[in-house]
Write a structure and sequence with these properties.
With 505 residues, the chain is of the alpha/beta class. The chain is built from 16 helices and 15 strands. Helix 8 (254-264) links the parallel strand 6 (244-247) and strand 7. The longest helix has 36 residues, at 305-340. The protein starts with 8 loop residues before the first strand and ends in an 8-residue tail after the last helix. Residues 22-31 have a biased composition (Basic and acidic residues).
Length: 505
Protein backbone atom coordinates (compact mmCIF):
# COMPACT_ATOMS: atom_id res chain seq x y z
CA UNK A 1 0.00 0.00 0.00
CA UNK A 2 1.25 3.48 -0.81
CA UNK A 3 1.96 5.65 2.17
CA UNK A 4 0.39 9.10 2.14
CA UNK A 5 2.71 12.02 1.50
CA UNK A 6 2.35 15.18 3.60
CA UNK A 7 3.19 18.59 2.16
CA UNK A 8 5.61 20.26 4.56
CA UNK A 9 6.75 23.83 5.16
CA UNK A 10 10.29 24.29 6.51
CA UNK A 11 10.89 26.84 9.26
CA UNK A 12 14.17 28.13 10.71
CA UNK A 13 15.97 25.44 12.67
CA UNK A 14 14.33 22.70 10.55
CA UNK A 15 10.97 23.08 12.36
CA UNK A 16 8.05 21.68 10.39
CA UNK A 17 4.55 22.94 9.82
CA UNK A 18 1.84 20.91 8.15
CA UNK A 19 0.51 23.81 6.07
CA UNK A 20 0.49 23.07 2.32
CA UNK A 21 3.54 24.18 0.34
CA UNK A 22 2.77 25.60 -3.12
CA UNK A 23 5.36 25.13 -5.91
CA UNK A 24 5.88 28.90 -6.21
CA UNK A 25 6.81 29.07 -2.52
CA UNK A 26 9.86 26.89 -3.09
CA UNK A 27 11.70 29.54 -5.06
CA UNK A 28 14.09 31.32 -2.76
CA UNK A 29 12.62 34.83 -3.13
CA UNK A 30 12.04 36.62 0.21
CA UNK A 31 9.93 39.28 -1.52
CA UNK A 32 7.24 36.73 -2.37
CA UNK A 33 6.93 34.87 0.92
CA UNK A 34 7.69 35.36 4.56
CA UNK A 35 8.64 31.72 5.02
CA UNK A 36 12.35 31.16 5.71
CA UNK A 37 13.51 28.77 2.97
CA UNK A 38 16.97 27.20 2.97
CA UNK A 39 19.26 28.86 0.43
CA UNK A 40 19.15 27.31 -3.02
CA UNK A 41 22.38 25.71 -4.16
CA UNK A 42 23.77 27.48 -7.22
CA UNK A 43 23.99 25.42 -10.37
CA UNK A 44 27.56 24.25 -10.86
CA UNK A 45 29.53 23.37 -13.93
CA UNK A 46 28.01 20.25 -15.49
CA UNK A 47 30.17 17.14 -15.34
CA UNK A 48 29.46 16.50 -19.03
CA UNK A 49 30.70 19.97 -19.99
CA UNK A 50 33.79 19.48 -17.82
CA UNK A 51 34.46 16.09 -19.43
CA UNK A 52 34.09 17.44 -22.97
CA UNK A 53 36.33 20.40 -22.11
CA UNK A 54 38.96 18.03 -20.77
CA UNK A 55 38.77 15.96 -23.95
CA UNK A 56 39.13 19.08 -26.10
CA UNK A 57 42.21 20.20 -24.13
CA UNK A 58 43.66 16.72 -24.45
CA UNK A 59 43.00 16.74 -28.20
CA UNK A 60 44.79 20.09 -28.59
CA UNK A 61 47.72 18.91 -26.44
CA UNK A 62 48.06 15.71 -28.47
CA UNK A 63 47.98 17.72 -31.71
CA UNK A 64 50.79 19.90 -30.35
CA UNK A 65 52.74 16.79 -29.32
CA UNK A 66 52.43 15.26 -32.80
CA UNK A 67 53.49 18.52 -34.45
CA UNK A 68 56.43 18.78 -32.05
CA UNK A 69 57.52 15.25 -32.87
CA UNK A 70 57.17 16.04 -36.59
CA UNK A 71 59.38 19.12 -36.19
CA UNK A 72 62.21 16.80 -35.18
CA UNK A 73 62.27 15.55 -38.79
CA UNK A 74 62.30 18.73 -40.94
CA UNK A 75 63.21 16.91 -44.16
CA UNK A 76 60.09 14.79 -43.93
CA UNK A 77 57.93 17.89 -43.35
CA UNK A 78 59.45 19.65 -46.37
CA UNK A 79 59.18 16.64 -48.68
CA UNK A 80 55.80 15.28 -47.51
CA UNK A 81 53.69 18.13 -46.07
CA UNK A 82 50.44 16.47 -47.19
CA UNK A 83 51.38 13.23 -45.43
CA UNK A 84 52.16 15.17 -42.25
CA UNK A 85 48.76 16.85 -42.33
CA UNK A 86 46.67 13.77 -43.11
CA UNK A 87 48.68 11.50 -40.82
CA UNK A 88 48.19 13.83 -37.86
CA UNK A 89 44.50 14.39 -38.60
CA UNK A 90 43.68 10.69 -39.01
CA UNK A 91 45.64 9.74 -35.89
CA UNK A 92 43.89 12.32 -33.74
CA UNK A 93 40.46 11.67 -35.22
CA UNK A 94 40.74 7.93 -34.61
CA UNK A 95 41.78 8.51 -30.99
CA UNK A 96 39.00 11.04 -30.41
CA UNK A 97 36.45 8.64 -31.91
CA UNK A 98 37.54 5.80 -29.64
CA UNK A 99 37.29 8.06 -26.60
CA UNK A 100 33.83 9.23 -27.66
CA UNK A 101 32.31 5.78 -28.19
CA UNK A 102 34.21 3.99 -25.43
CA UNK A 103 32.69 3.70 -21.95
CA UNK A 104 34.02 5.90 -19.16
CA UNK A 105 35.91 4.06 -16.45
CA UNK A 106 33.60 3.00 -13.65
CA UNK A 107 36.30 3.45 -11.04
CA UNK A 108 37.92 6.60 -9.79
CA UNK A 109 41.29 4.90 -10.16
CA UNK A 110 43.99 6.57 -12.21
CA UNK A 111 45.62 3.24 -13.11
CA UNK A 112 42.46 1.96 -14.82
CA UNK A 113 41.65 5.22 -16.59
CA UNK A 114 45.25 5.62 -17.76
CA UNK A 115 45.24 2.07 -19.10
CA UNK A 116 42.00 2.78 -20.94
CA UNK A 117 43.37 5.97 -22.51
CA UNK A 118 46.72 4.41 -23.45
CA UNK A 119 44.81 1.54 -25.03
CA UNK A 120 42.89 3.98 -27.24
CA UNK A 121 46.11 5.75 -28.19
CA UNK A 122 47.80 2.46 -29.15
CA UNK A 123 44.75 1.41 -31.18
CA UNK A 124 44.85 4.73 -33.03
CA UNK A 125 48.56 4.16 -33.63
CA UNK A 126 47.84 0.73 -35.05
CA UNK A 127 45.19 2.21 -37.33
CA UNK A 128 47.59 4.82 -38.72
CA UNK A 129 50.27 2.17 -39.32
CA UNK A 130 47.83 -0.07 -41.19
CA UNK A 131 46.61 2.90 -43.23
CA UNK A 132 50.15 3.90 -44.10
CA UNK A 133 50.90 0.35 -45.24
CA UNK A 134 47.77 0.12 -47.38
CA UNK A 135 48.28 3.53 -49.03
CA UNK A 136 52.06 3.58 -49.26
CA UNK A 137 52.01 5.31 -52.66
CA UNK A 138 49.88 8.18 -51.34
CA UNK A 139 50.76 8.49 -47.63
CA UNK A 140 54.45 8.52 -46.71
CA UNK A 141 54.69 8.45 -42.92
CA UNK A 142 57.95 8.55 -41.00
CA UNK A 143 58.43 5.54 -38.74
CA UNK A 144 60.52 7.65 -36.36
CA UNK A 145 57.69 10.20 -36.20
CA UNK A 146 55.21 7.46 -35.29
CA UNK A 147 57.51 6.08 -32.57
CA UNK A 148 58.15 9.56 -31.14
CA UNK A 149 54.45 10.43 -31.35
CA UNK A 150 53.47 7.30 -29.42
CA UNK A 151 55.81 8.19 -26.54
CA UNK A 152 55.00 11.91 -26.44
CA UNK A 153 51.29 11.13 -26.72
CA UNK A 154 51.48 8.81 -23.72
CA UNK A 155 53.20 11.55 -21.69
CA UNK A 156 50.56 14.09 -22.72
CA UNK A 157 47.67 11.76 -21.84
CA UNK A 158 49.14 11.14 -18.39
CA UNK A 159 49.86 14.85 -17.83
CA UNK A 160 46.38 15.96 -18.84
CA UNK A 161 44.88 13.28 -16.58
CA UNK A 162 46.90 14.43 -13.55
CA UNK A 163 46.09 18.11 -14.08
CA UNK A 164 42.38 17.48 -14.77
CA UNK A 165 42.08 15.23 -11.70
CA UNK A 166 43.54 17.89 -9.43
CA UNK A 167 41.46 20.65 -10.98
CA UNK A 168 38.19 18.71 -10.87
CA UNK A 169 38.80 17.71 -7.26
CA UNK A 170 39.37 21.35 -6.32
CA UNK A 171 36.28 22.55 -8.22
CA UNK A 172 34.09 19.82 -6.77
CA UNK A 173 35.27 20.57 -3.25
CA UNK A 174 34.42 24.24 -3.73
CA UNK A 175 30.94 23.33 -5.01
CA UNK A 176 31.43 24.69 -8.54
CA UNK A 177 31.56 21.33 -10.34
CA UNK A 178 28.74 18.81 -10.47
CA UNK A 179 25.00 18.62 -11.10
CA UNK A 180 22.67 19.18 -8.14
CA UNK A 181 21.42 15.83 -6.87
CA UNK A 182 18.44 15.09 -4.64
CA UNK A 183 18.07 11.71 -2.95
CA UNK A 184 14.48 10.55 -2.51
CA UNK A 185 13.90 7.90 0.12
CA UNK A 186 15.42 7.41 3.54
CA UNK A 187 15.88 3.67 3.36
CA UNK A 188 18.42 2.29 5.84
CA UNK A 189 21.21 2.54 3.25
CA UNK A 190 20.97 6.31 2.85
CA UNK A 191 23.80 7.26 5.22
CA UNK A 192 26.09 4.64 3.68
CA UNK A 193 25.04 5.91 0.26
CA UNK A 194 25.89 9.48 1.26
CA UNK A 195 29.34 8.45 2.37
CA UNK A 196 30.06 6.62 -0.89
CA UNK A 197 28.85 9.46 -3.12
CA UNK A 198 30.71 12.19 -1.25
CA UNK A 199 34.00 10.28 -1.40
CA UNK A 200 33.85 8.73 -4.87
CA UNK A 201 31.79 10.84 -7.28
CA UNK A 202 32.56 14.27 -8.69
CA UNK A 203 29.62 14.34 -11.08
CA UNK A 204 27.14 15.50 -8.45
CA UNK A 205 26.74 17.95 -5.60
CA UNK A 206 24.29 16.45 -3.12
CA UNK A 207 21.64 19.13 -2.62
CA UNK A 208 19.03 17.48 -0.39
CA UNK A 209 17.57 14.27 0.98
CA UNK A 210 13.81 13.75 0.75
CA UNK A 211 11.82 11.55 3.08
CA UNK A 212 8.27 10.39 2.45
CA UNK A 213 7.18 11.51 5.93
CA UNK A 214 8.57 13.79 8.62
CA UNK A 215 9.41 10.87 10.95
CA UNK A 216 12.94 10.35 9.67
CA UNK A 217 16.36 10.95 11.13
CA UNK A 218 19.40 11.07 8.84
CA UNK A 219 22.93 12.00 9.86
CA UNK A 220 23.98 14.31 7.04
CA UNK A 221 26.27 17.36 6.76
CA UNK A 222 24.63 20.74 7.43
CA UNK A 223 24.93 21.77 3.79
CA UNK A 224 22.67 18.86 2.77
CA UNK A 225 19.07 19.80 3.57
CA UNK A 226 16.58 17.27 4.87
CA UNK A 227 13.18 17.82 3.23
CA UNK A 228 9.88 15.95 2.93
CA UNK A 229 7.34 15.11 0.27
CA UNK A 230 7.31 14.03 -3.36
CA UNK A 231 5.32 17.12 -4.34
CA UNK A 232 8.01 19.36 -2.86
CA UNK A 233 10.69 17.46 -4.78
CA UNK A 234 8.80 17.77 -8.08
CA UNK A 235 8.14 21.47 -7.51
CA UNK A 236 11.80 22.22 -6.82
CA UNK A 237 12.84 20.21 -9.87
CA UNK A 238 10.31 22.11 -12.00
CA UNK A 239 11.66 25.40 -10.65
CA UNK A 240 15.15 24.43 -11.86
CA UNK A 241 16.77 23.86 -8.45
CA UNK A 242 17.56 20.17 -9.04
CA UNK A 243 19.34 18.50 -11.97
CA UNK A 244 19.14 14.82 -11.00
CA UNK A 245 17.18 12.60 -8.62
CA UNK A 246 18.41 9.36 -7.08
CA UNK A 247 15.68 7.03 -5.82
CA UNK A 248 16.66 5.17 -2.66
CA UNK A 249 13.62 2.92 -2.43
CA UNK A 250 13.30 -0.78 -1.52
CA UNK A 251 12.95 -2.82 -4.70
CA UNK A 252 10.41 -5.15 -3.13
CA UNK A 253 7.96 -2.22 -2.80
CA UNK A 254 7.26 -2.27 -6.52
CA UNK A 255 4.06 -0.26 -6.22
CA UNK A 256 5.88 2.61 -4.49
CA UNK A 257 8.66 2.59 -7.06
CA UNK A 258 6.25 2.65 -10.02
CA UNK A 259 4.18 5.46 -8.46
CA UNK A 260 7.24 7.64 -7.86
CA UNK A 261 8.61 6.96 -11.34
CA UNK A 262 5.31 7.99 -12.96
CA UNK A 263 5.24 11.22 -10.98
CA UNK A 264 8.82 12.09 -11.89
CA UNK A 265 8.00 11.83 -15.60
CA UNK A 266 6.52 15.32 -15.19
CA UNK A 267 9.89 17.07 -14.86
CA UNK A 268 12.99 17.35 -17.02
CA UNK A 269 15.65 15.86 -14.74
CA UNK A 270 17.84 12.78 -14.73
CA UNK A 271 16.23 10.01 -12.65
CA UNK A 272 18.26 7.07 -11.30
CA UNK A 273 17.54 4.31 -8.83
CA UNK A 274 19.86 2.75 -6.26
CA UNK A 275 20.60 -0.91 -7.08
CA UNK A 276 19.07 -3.72 -5.10
CA UNK A 277 21.12 -5.48 -2.44
CA UNK A 278 22.06 -8.19 -4.94
CA UNK A 279 23.28 -5.64 -7.46
CA UNK A 280 25.18 -3.70 -4.80
CA UNK A 281 27.41 -6.74 -4.47
CA UNK A 282 28.63 -5.92 -7.98
CA UNK A 283 30.63 -2.81 -8.70
CA UNK A 284 29.90 -2.72 -12.42
CA UNK A 285 26.78 -3.66 -14.31
CA UNK A 286 25.60 -3.15 -17.84
CA UNK A 287 22.38 -3.33 -19.81
CA UNK A 288 22.24 -6.35 -22.11
CA UNK A 289 19.64 -7.22 -24.72
CA UNK A 290 18.09 -10.67 -24.39
CA UNK A 291 15.62 -10.95 -27.24
CA UNK A 292 13.25 -7.98 -26.97
CA UNK A 293 14.11 -7.39 -23.30
CA UNK A 294 16.63 -5.09 -21.69
CA UNK A 295 18.28 -7.03 -18.86
CA UNK A 296 20.81 -6.12 -16.18
CA UNK A 297 24.01 -8.12 -16.73
CA UNK A 298 25.34 -9.02 -13.30
CA UNK A 299 28.25 -11.11 -14.59
CA UNK A 300 29.95 -11.20 -17.98
CA UNK A 301 32.96 -13.08 -19.20
CA UNK A 302 35.65 -10.39 -19.01
CA UNK A 303 37.74 -11.76 -21.89
CA UNK A 304 35.91 -12.55 -25.10
CA UNK A 305 36.45 -12.39 -28.85
CA UNK A 306 39.52 -10.63 -30.19
CA UNK A 307 40.47 -9.44 -26.71
CA UNK A 308 40.73 -13.03 -25.45
CA UNK A 309 42.83 -14.06 -28.46
CA UNK A 310 45.14 -11.08 -27.94
CA UNK A 311 45.63 -11.99 -24.28
CA UNK A 312 46.47 -15.60 -25.18
CA UNK A 313 48.92 -14.44 -27.85
CA UNK A 314 50.53 -11.97 -25.43
CA UNK A 315 50.83 -14.62 -22.70
CA UNK A 316 52.34 -17.32 -24.87
CA UNK A 317 54.72 -15.09 -26.84
CA UNK A 318 56.05 -13.20 -23.82
CA UNK A 319 56.39 -16.39 -21.78
CA UNK A 320 58.34 -18.10 -24.59
CA UNK A 321 60.66 -15.11 -25.06
CA UNK A 322 61.12 -14.78 -21.29
CA UNK A 323 62.10 -18.45 -21.00
CA UNK A 324 64.72 -17.97 -23.70
CA UNK A 325 66.01 -14.80 -22.06
CA UNK A 326 66.01 -16.10 -18.48
CA UNK A 327 66.98 -19.66 -19.42
CA UNK A 328 70.67 -19.35 -18.43
CA UNK A 329 69.70 -17.62 -15.17
CA UNK A 330 67.18 -20.35 -14.37
CA UNK A 331 69.82 -23.03 -14.95
CA UNK A 332 72.18 -21.19 -12.61
CA UNK A 333 69.49 -20.90 -9.91
CA UNK A 334 68.61 -24.60 -10.28
CA UNK A 335 72.27 -25.57 -9.88
CA UNK A 336 72.64 -23.37 -6.78
CA UNK A 337 69.55 -24.95 -5.18
CA UNK A 338 70.75 -28.49 -5.87
CA UNK A 339 74.28 -27.83 -4.57
CA UNK A 340 73.07 -26.34 -1.29
CA UNK A 341 70.21 -28.79 -0.70
CA UNK A 342 70.27 -31.88 -2.95
CA UNK A 343 66.87 -32.92 -4.21
CA UNK A 344 64.26 -31.67 -6.68
CA UNK A 345 64.92 -28.07 -7.69
CA UNK A 346 61.27 -27.46 -8.51
CA UNK A 347 58.52 -27.23 -5.91
CA UNK A 348 55.12 -28.43 -7.13
CA UNK A 349 52.00 -27.29 -5.30
CA UNK A 350 48.27 -27.54 -5.98
CA UNK A 351 46.77 -24.10 -6.44
CA UNK A 352 43.31 -22.76 -7.32
CA UNK A 353 42.95 -22.00 -11.03
CA UNK A 354 40.19 -20.70 -13.29
CA UNK A 355 36.72 -21.98 -12.35
CA UNK A 356 38.27 -22.95 -9.01
CA UNK A 357 39.84 -26.00 -10.68
CA UNK A 358 43.16 -27.20 -9.19
CA UNK A 359 46.40 -27.10 -11.16
CA UNK A 360 50.02 -27.82 -10.32
CA UNK A 361 51.99 -24.59 -9.99
CA UNK A 362 55.77 -24.67 -10.39
CA UNK A 363 58.28 -22.73 -8.31
CA UNK A 364 61.94 -23.05 -7.53
CA UNK A 365 62.28 -24.86 -4.23
CA UNK A 366 63.29 -22.43 -1.48
CA UNK A 367 62.98 -24.74 1.57
CA UNK A 368 64.72 -27.85 2.77
CA UNK A 369 63.12 -31.00 1.39
CA UNK A 370 61.79 -32.15 4.75
CA UNK A 371 60.23 -28.74 5.49
CA UNK A 372 58.22 -28.15 2.33
CA UNK A 373 54.61 -27.16 3.06
CA UNK A 374 52.25 -28.46 0.38
CA UNK A 375 49.12 -26.83 1.83
CA UNK A 376 50.72 -23.56 3.00
CA UNK A 377 49.47 -24.30 6.50
CA UNK A 378 52.25 -22.23 8.07
CA UNK A 379 53.27 -18.82 6.74
CA UNK A 380 56.93 -18.19 6.00
CA UNK A 381 58.37 -15.62 8.40
CA UNK A 382 61.48 -13.49 8.20
CA UNK A 383 64.49 -15.63 9.12
CA UNK A 384 62.43 -18.83 8.86
CA UNK A 385 64.70 -21.86 9.56
CA UNK A 386 62.88 -23.87 6.88
CA UNK A 387 64.21 -21.58 4.12
CA UNK A 388 67.65 -22.24 2.66
CA UNK A 389 70.18 -19.48 2.03
CA UNK A 390 69.64 -19.69 -1.73
CA UNK A 391 65.90 -19.90 -1.08
CA UNK A 392 65.94 -16.68 0.94
CA UNK A 393 67.65 -14.88 -1.93
CA UNK A 394 65.36 -16.13 -4.69
CA UNK A 395 62.24 -15.43 -2.61
CA UNK A 396 63.36 -11.87 -1.93
CA UNK A 397 64.12 -11.23 -5.61
CA UNK A 398 61.06 -13.23 -6.85
CA UNK A 399 63.33 -15.49 -8.92
CA UNK A 400 61.51 -18.46 -7.41
CA UNK A 401 58.47 -17.52 -9.55
CA UNK A 402 60.24 -17.91 -12.93
CA UNK A 403 59.18 -21.57 -13.50
CA UNK A 404 55.60 -20.32 -13.68
CA UNK A 405 56.44 -19.22 -17.21
CA UNK A 406 56.05 -22.93 -18.00
CA UNK A 407 52.57 -22.84 -16.44
CA UNK A 408 51.73 -19.94 -18.75
CA UNK A 409 52.84 -21.91 -21.82
CA UNK A 410 50.72 -24.83 -20.62
CA UNK A 411 47.67 -22.58 -20.36
CA UNK A 412 47.31 -22.99 -16.58
CA UNK A 413 48.19 -19.36 -15.89
CA UNK A 414 48.41 -15.94 -17.50
CA UNK A 415 51.01 -13.20 -17.25
CA UNK A 416 48.52 -10.96 -15.44
CA UNK A 417 45.65 -12.03 -13.24
CA UNK A 418 44.77 -12.77 -9.63
CA UNK A 419 47.62 -14.61 -7.94
CA UNK A 420 46.80 -18.33 -7.38
CA UNK A 421 46.48 -19.24 -3.71
CA UNK A 422 47.15 -22.53 -1.98
CA UNK A 423 44.13 -24.40 -0.63
CA UNK A 424 45.21 -24.00 2.99
CA UNK A 425 46.14 -20.31 2.79
CA UNK A 426 44.91 -18.30 5.77
CA UNK A 427 44.59 -14.73 6.99
CA UNK A 428 44.74 -14.32 10.76
CA UNK A 429 44.23 -18.10 11.20
CA UNK A 430 41.09 -18.12 9.03
CA UNK A 431 40.83 -19.60 5.54
CA UNK A 432 40.52 -16.96 2.82
CA UNK A 433 37.02 -18.08 1.85
CA UNK A 434 35.95 -17.66 5.47
CA UNK A 435 37.18 -14.07 5.53
CA UNK A 436 35.83 -12.98 2.12
CA UNK A 437 32.31 -14.19 1.33
CA UNK A 438 32.74 -13.67 -2.43
CA UNK A 439 36.23 -15.15 -2.56
CA UNK A 440 35.46 -17.64 -5.40
CA UNK A 441 34.64 -14.70 -7.72
CA UNK A 442 38.38 -14.14 -8.28
CA UNK A 443 38.56 -17.51 -10.06
CA UNK A 444 36.58 -16.38 -13.10
CA UNK A 445 39.82 -15.80 -15.04
CA UNK A 446 43.20 -17.52 -15.28
CA UNK A 447 45.49 -16.81 -12.32
CA UNK A 448 48.47 -14.61 -13.07
CA UNK A 449 52.20 -14.38 -12.55
CA UNK A 450 51.51 -10.84 -11.35
CA UNK A 451 48.39 -8.76 -10.83
CA UNK A 452 46.86 -5.45 -9.89
CA UNK A 453 47.05 -6.29 -6.18
CA UNK A 454 50.77 -7.01 -6.42
CA UNK A 455 51.69 -3.73 -8.13
CA UNK A 456 49.69 -1.88 -5.47
CA UNK A 457 51.92 -3.43 -2.83
CA UNK A 458 49.41 -6.02 -1.53
CA UNK A 459 51.75 -8.99 -1.36
CA UNK A 460 53.65 -10.89 1.28
CA UNK A 461 52.10 -12.63 4.27
CA UNK A 462 48.43 -12.19 5.14
CA UNK A 463 48.78 -11.65 8.87
CA UNK A 464 45.52 -9.70 9.13
CA UNK A 465 42.14 -10.22 7.54
CA UNK A 466 42.45 -6.78 5.90
CA UNK A 467 45.41 -8.09 3.87
CA UNK A 468 43.34 -10.61 1.91
CA UNK A 469 40.36 -8.24 1.69
CA UNK A 470 42.48 -5.59 -0.06
CA UNK A 471 43.91 -8.17 -2.44
CA UNK A 472 40.47 -9.54 -3.24
CA UNK A 473 39.11 -6.05 -3.97
CA UNK A 474 41.99 -5.39 -6.37
CA UNK A 475 41.56 -8.78 -8.04
CA UNK A 476 37.85 -8.16 -8.58
CA UNK A 477 38.58 -4.69 -9.91
CA UNK A 478 41.05 -6.15 -12.41
CA UNK A 479 38.52 -8.72 -13.64
CA UNK A 480 35.81 -6.09 -14.11
CA UNK A 481 38.07 -3.55 -15.84
CA UNK A 482 40.30 -5.91 -17.84
CA UNK A 483 41.93 -4.72 -21.05
CA UNK A 484 45.15 -5.50 -22.91
CA UNK A 485 46.41 -2.01 -22.11
CA UNK A 486 45.76 -2.59 -18.39
CA UNK A 487 47.81 -5.80 -18.64
CA UNK A 488 50.68 -3.88 -20.23
CA UNK A 489 50.57 -1.21 -17.52
CA UNK A 490 50.65 -3.89 -14.79
CA UNK A 491 53.58 -5.68 -16.44
CA UNK A 492 55.61 -2.45 -16.57
CA UNK A 493 54.70 -1.57 -12.98
CA UNK A 494 55.65 -5.09 -11.87
CA UNK A 495 59.14 -4.65 -13.28
CA UNK A 496 59.47 -1.39 -11.34
CA UNK A 497 57.94 -2.77 -8.13
CA UNK A 498 60.43 -5.66 -7.94
CA UNK A 499 63.23 -3.19 -7.26
CA UNK A 500 61.51 -1.44 -4.36
CA UNK A 501 59.28 -4.01 -2.64
CA UNK A 502 60.63 -5.52 0.56
CA UNK A 503 57.70 -7.59 1.84
CA UNK A 504 58.75 -10.89 0.24
CA UNK A 505 60.93 -13.26 2.27
Amino acid sequence: MLRSTMHLRLKPGNDVDSAPLRPDEIIDDPSKTSVSVPPVRRKGLSFHIARDTRRACEFVALAAALMLSASLFPKWIINEPVSVFWGTLIWLTTYAGLCAIGPDSAFDCRTDRLAQKIGYWLKATGAIIVLAFLSKDHLELSRLWIATGVMLGGVVIYGVMVVSDQLSESLHRSGTLGDRLAIYGTDGRVEHLLNILQNNDRRFQIDSIYGETRDVAVAAPDRIKLRWGLDDLIARARAGHIDAILLNLPWHEQGVVEHVMRRLEEVNVDVMIVPSELQLARRTMSIQRCGPFATIALYQRPMQGIGALMKIALDRSVAALALLFFGPLMLFVAAAIWIESPGPVLFRQKRRGMNNEPFTMLKFRSMHIAATDQNADKLVTRGDARVTRVGAFIRKTSLDELPQLINILRGDMSLVGPRPHAYGAKAADRLYEEVVARYPARHRVLPGLTGLAQVRGFRGNTLREEDIIRRFDSDLEYIERWSISLDLVIIVRTAITLFFHREAY
